[in-house]
Structure formats: structure tokens, C-alpha cells
């Protein structure tokens, strides 16, 4: 069963194909970008097409399916109302799938379920990365604010941190926000 | 009081203005609603989110709501359109090389004159084996039907003499620049963006093809309307209030700034403001010209979902999908538009409410005429097709037989 993956994120496409390969589905074509998408699909003639829901090529893809004679009447996987749970899970995860008409349902379901799990895994990975990045940014901000306080008030680092922390608790804000305010005011006030 | 939440899907286009402004300008809140807007890049995803419950309603190209209800290309899902988000507002932009061959002067083209010139070029191109190619935003879009209506009426056969392909509106300027297409028919601000980038020239606005042609609608599943009728009524009132405010010239600058924001259109504010103000810049660096009623969002009960508009769209669906006319399908298509819901929602307000639910489309050729209304005073302006053909919703087959 040949599966085409069209994705705006090459990382996610790699994560999905890896999962499919692990499950023994190794006839995979990855298509990225809008240019040449239709030609690549025609050449690959896949039986299943996985595309991220937010991909800007979805209208172009559906038009291709509507007029193409190269692929045997692909249909949206969403339209399979008999499996509402799987459909909703797919939409929630951000996957859309098109399947050549007539392909047995029991052969498709594992592919879709796997794609959903991989999409979710990618989303988690992204969230973690985002968290890690903002934690790193927070730490840099707090370090800079501490340095300003230490210099201007002639205090040591633990005392400077203690000041930041106490102010954050009093005003019910995050330490990073207080630190950010100190950096901003230092930039504006200069050596006043 | 807790607000009822309504999630509305949209594409980044100027005519998504009413739901955006209903949220941003407090009209939704005044009706006890909190509108949450969900932006997407394709109509396929706007439709899928609507069908699978990610959104409650959507800004949608009118023919797609009908195609979804008729099950074109997928199993049918009952749909309801209780409110029209606007009429017209699209343009046909040609690549500069093509424009140089078919346009002169510094005004908008005349559909007949331009059509004749385009026909000559299209014939020439087809003879050399490289047909002219036009991009539209979706198979089931008013853009597709307006472009095809014009081309066919000037003797250019779509799909035979020229190619028509699907292009995402936000990438239309790129497609023109890359030479993938020779012309585009898209909504604003994307024609304006193509012009400002120096990759295209606006040749026609769709109001020149069919004045007062139905454009985007508020679409929802019929089940949502049945379950949340009261919320839908309040949403209609909020959108109607937003429309009244949208056409007030004093609000233009601020509205354009809101629409241009990253979370909405994420587009240059100048191109957005031109569209909102009915000003069209035809070619890079030119002074924008005023095109009265380029976008038409409020007057003349513009938001009223006439069943005859749905009937016209169905006639074009039959024409270009190449499917046989069916009286049942025609009924189903017209049943998607819900003037009854519009009337119920706006009863007791100052809004003019038409007596009739259907009218002869394209029959008002010159001056405005008064029309029967159960509430308020209703005036309808010129609504002609450029070839002066009128559409009688009770005789779709006769109309189709008379088309080229």
C-alpha cells in the first residue's frame, strides 16, 4: 500500500514516515511544498494521502482529486461517518486523509490511527520545545535583571534574586515579568 | 451574565469583516455572545472544521455551502445559510504581460471590449499549445462562477480555450509572479497585494460581471441551527449591526487596522483600507480609483439570503460540473438559504425585511426600484449581469438552455 505524506513541516513528515516504517509500511512518498505537488502525486499514484489539516495546498489537492484520472477516485477519510471517533480524533490531531475508493477499511484504520498518534507526538514535542525555549529566555532575563540590581544597589546575587522574588509575590506576577520591567526601566533611565 | 460562545471559521479576506468586527467592536457582546474566530488557509479546512464540530459557523464561499448540502464530492450534510456576509468585492487581475496585450488606458476594462481582446489572445495561445491559465480560489466559489460566466459570454470556452485551476487566495500573487497563472479571480486584499507587488493589473471587478452578485455567506450545519436557534438569531443581529457600522465612512481607518492585524488578515493595511473604502488601485503606484459599491455589505438588505441567489449558484453548478439539472437538487440548493431565519432574527429591528424570498435576478437594469417589505422601506439597486440576461429561479432549465 503506497502512502503519500504531504506536510508543511519536514520534521513532522519524518516523524510520521518513521512510525509507518516501524509498523512495516515502507512504501512511502514524502511530498513537500506546493510547487510540483500535483505532478509528484500523479507520478507516485498513492492509495492513501496524508496531509496536515492546516496545509495551504488542501484546496488544490481536492481540486486535483476532483478532476484527476490518474488516481482512482480518492475520497476524504473524514466522510466515513461510520467511524466518528476516529474521524474526530483525526480532525483534533490536525490530520486529513484521502483514500482511494475501494481500499478495505481494516487496512486503512491502522494507518490513520498511527498518523494520529504521530501528529499528537509531534504537537507534544513542539509544546515541550516551546516551553524549553521560553524557560531559557526567562532565565536570561532574570540573570540580566539580577546583574542590574547588584550593580545599582551594591548587593549580592542571592539578595538581588530575593528582591525580584518578593516583588513578584507582592504583585502576583511572574519573576520574569518583574525582571523584564527592570531591564526596560534601566534601558530608559540609564544612569539616573 | 455568561456569554454564549460561538466559534466562527474564516479565511483571511476583507469580506470576513463582519464576524471579526462583531467581535472587536462589541456587537457580539451586546447580544450576549463571545465570538471566537478560527483562521484557516483553505476552504477545505474551513468546511471540515465546520462539519466536525471545531466551529459552529463559518465565513464561506456561497457555492461551497450548497455543494456540501448537495453532497458534491462527498456525502451530503444538511446546511443552513441564514445571513449573507456580502455581495461582490472580488476582482480579476491579469499578469502584466497579458494585461499589456489586452488593456490600454488607466481605467477598469469594459467586460465586452476586454472580453473580445482576451478571446483573440486566448485563441492565439491555444493554437501554440499553451493555453492561458486562470486561478480561482475554489471549484465551488463565486469567483469561479463569475469568471466562467464572463468568459463564456464573450465566447471563450472555459476548460477548452483556457485552463482554470485552483489557487489559494493568499498565494495568488505568488502564482502570478511565478508565471504559474496568467490571471486570477480572488477576493481582497489579494488583488491589491498583487498590484502593489507589481505582478499584476486589475482588469475587472466582479461587480462588472454581475452587480450585487452573492459572495460570502454565514454557513452552518442545519443541525446547529436547530439546536441553537436563539444563539443564531443573536449572531445574525450582531452581524447586521456590524454591517451597518462597516459601511459608515467614519469607521474605515480603524476597521481596516483591525482587519489587517496578524491574527486576522495579516495583510498590508493600505490594501485592506482601499477595499473597505471601495477604492481600487489598478496598477502599481497608480492613484486608486473609486468604484462605487465594489464591496456591498449592508444597504438594500444585502445580507438577506434570497433563495433565488442559491438557485443561480445551483444553475452554475449544473453548468460547470456537467451534471444534469434536477428539480429535487434545485429545491435542496434553495432550501440551504434561510430567509425565514433572517426575518425571525431581525423582526422588531429597523432592518428592512423583504416580503418575497425569491426574485428575478439581474432584472433591475437602470434605476433603483422600491420592493415589497413587511418591515422597513426596501429599495433595490441595479443588479444586472453584464450581458443583460436575467435569471428566473422558476425556470432554471430554460435559463441554462439559453446560455452559451
UniProtKB/TrEMBL annotation, chain A:
Transmembrane segments: none
Record Pfam families: ANTAR
Protein name as catalogued: Response regulator receiver and ANTAR domain protein
Organism expressing this protein natively: Sphingomonas faeni
Record-linked InterPro entries: ANTAR (IPR005561), CheY-like_superfamily (IPR011006), Sig_transdc_resp-reg_antiterm (IPR008327), Sig_transdc_resp-reg_receiver (IPR001789), WH-like_DNA-bd_sf (IPR036388)
GO molecular function: RNA binding
Classification via Gene3D superfamilies: 3.40.50.2300, Winged helix-like DNA-binding domain superfamily/Winged helix DNA-binding domain
Every ANTAR domain range: 122-183
Domain Response regulatory intervals: 2-116
Gene Ontology BP terms: phosphorelay signal transduction system
Source organism superkingdom: Bacteria
From TrEMBL, chain B:
InterPro entries: NrtA/CpmA_ABC-bd_dom (IPR044527)
Localisation per UniProt entry: Endomembrane system
Keywords carried by this UniProt record: ATP-binding, Cell inner membrane, Cell membrane, Membrane, Nucleotide-binding, Transport
Record-level Gene Ontology MF annotations: ATP binding
Pfam families per record: NMT1_2 (PF13379)
Highest taxon of source: Bacteria
Coiled coil: none
Gene Ontology cellular component list: endomembrane system
Name used for this protein in its record: NitT/TauT family transport system ATP-binding protein
Organism, as annotated: Sphingomonas faeni
Amino acid at each position: 500500500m503506497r502512502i503519500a505524506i504531504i506536510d508543511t513541516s519536514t520534521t513532522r513528515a519524518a516523524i510520521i514516515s518513521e512510525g509507518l516504517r516501524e509498523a512495516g509500511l515502507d512504501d512511502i512518498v514524502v511530498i513537500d511544498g506546493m510547487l510540483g505537488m500535483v505532478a509528484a502525486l500523479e507520478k507516485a499514484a498513492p492509495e492513501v494521502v496524508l496531509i496536515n489539516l492546516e496545509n495551504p495546498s488542501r484546496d488544490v489537492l481536492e481540486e486535483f482529486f476532483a478532476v484527476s484520472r490518474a488516481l482512482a477516485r480518492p475520497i476524504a477519510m473524514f466522510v466515513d461517518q461510520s467511524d466518528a471517533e476516529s474521524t474526530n480524533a483525526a480532525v483534533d490531531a490536525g490530520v486529513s486523509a484521502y483514500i482511494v475508493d475501494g481500499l478495505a477499511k481494516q487496512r486503512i484504520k491502522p494507518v490513520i490511527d498511527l498518523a494520529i498518534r504521530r501528529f499528537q507526538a509531534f504537537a507534544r514535542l513542539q509544546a515541550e520545545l516551546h516551553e524549553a525555549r521560553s524557560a531559557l529566555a526567562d532565565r536570561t532575563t532574570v540573570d540580566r535583571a539580577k546583574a542590574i540590581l547588584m550593580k545599582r544597589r551594591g548587593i549580592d546575587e542571592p539578595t538581588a534574586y530575593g528582591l525580584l522574588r518578593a516583588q513578584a509575590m507582592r504583585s502576583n506576577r511572574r519573576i520574569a515579568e518583574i525582571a523584564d520591567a527592570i531591564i526596560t526601566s534601566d534601558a530608559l533611565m540609564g544612569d539616573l | 451574565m455568561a456569554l454564549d460562545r460561538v466559534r466562527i471559521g474564516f479565511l483571511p479576506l476583507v469580506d470576513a469583516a463582519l464576524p471579526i468586527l462583531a467581535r472587536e467592536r462589541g456587537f457580539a457582546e451586546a447580544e450576549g455572545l463571545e465570538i471566537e474566530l478560527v483562521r484557516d488557509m483553505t476552504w477545505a479546512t474551513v468546511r471540515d472544521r465546520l462539519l466536525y464540530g471545531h466551529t459552529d459557523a463559518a465565513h464561506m464561499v456561497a457555492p461551497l455551502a450548497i455543494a456540501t448540502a448537495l453532497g458534491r464530492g462527498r456525502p451530503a450534510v444538511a446546511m443552513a445559510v441564514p445571513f449573507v456576509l456580502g455581495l461582490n468585492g472580488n476582482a480579476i487581475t491579469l499578469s502584466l504581460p497579458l494585461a499589456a496585450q489586452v488593456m490600454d488606458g488607466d481605467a477598469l476594462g469594459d467586460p465586452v471590449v476586454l472580453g473580445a481582446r482576451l478571446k483573440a489572445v486566448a485563441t492565439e495561445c491555444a493554437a501554440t499549445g499553451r493555453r492561458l491559465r486562470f486561478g480561482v480560489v475554489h471549484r465551488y466559489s463565486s469567483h469561479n462562477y463569475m469568471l466562467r460566466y464572463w468568459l463564456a459570454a464573450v465566447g471563450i470556452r472555459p476548460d477548452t480555450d483556457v485552463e482554470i485551476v485552483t489557487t489559494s487566495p493568499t498565494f495568488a500573487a505568488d502564482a502570478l509572479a511565478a508565471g504559474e497563472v496568467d490571471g486570477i479571480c480572488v477576493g481582497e486584499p489579494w488583488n491589491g497585494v498583487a498590484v502593489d507587488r507589481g505582478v499584476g493589473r486589475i482588469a475587472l471587478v466582479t461587480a462588472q460581471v454581475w452587480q450585487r452578485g452573492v459572495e460570502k455567506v454565514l454557513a452552518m450545519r442545519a443541525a446547529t441551527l436547530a439546536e441553537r436557534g436563539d444563539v443564531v438569531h443573536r449572531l445574525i443581529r450582531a452581524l447586521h449591526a456590524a454591517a451597518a457600522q462597516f459601511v459608515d465612512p467614519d469607521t474605515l481607518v480603524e476597521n481596516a487596522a483591525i482587519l489587517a492585524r496578524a491574527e486576522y488578515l495579516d495583510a498590508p493595511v493600505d490594501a485592506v483600507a482601499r477595499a473597505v473604502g471601495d477604492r481600487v488601485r489598478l496598477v502599481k503606484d497608480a492613484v486608486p480609483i473609486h468604484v462605487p459599491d465594489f464591496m456591498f455589505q449592508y444597504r438594500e438588505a444585502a445580507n438577506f439570503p434570497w433563495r433565488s441567489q442559491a438557485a443561480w449558484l445551483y444553475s452554475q453548478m449544473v453548468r460547470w460540473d456537467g451534471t444534469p439539472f434536477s428539480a429535487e437538487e434545485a429545491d435542496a440548493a434553495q432550501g440551504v438559504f434561510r430567509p425565514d431565519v433572517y426575518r425571525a432574527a431581525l423582526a422588531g429591528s429597523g432592518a428592512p425585511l423583504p416580503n418575497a424570498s425569491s426574485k428575478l435576478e439581474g432584472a433591475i437594469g437602470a434605476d433603483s426600484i422600491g420592493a415589497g417589505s413587511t418591515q422597513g422601506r426596501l429599495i433595490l439597486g441595479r443588479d444586472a449581469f453584464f450581458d443583460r440576461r436575467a435569471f428566473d429561479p422558476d425556470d432554471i432549465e430554460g435559463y441554462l438552455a439559453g446560455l452559451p
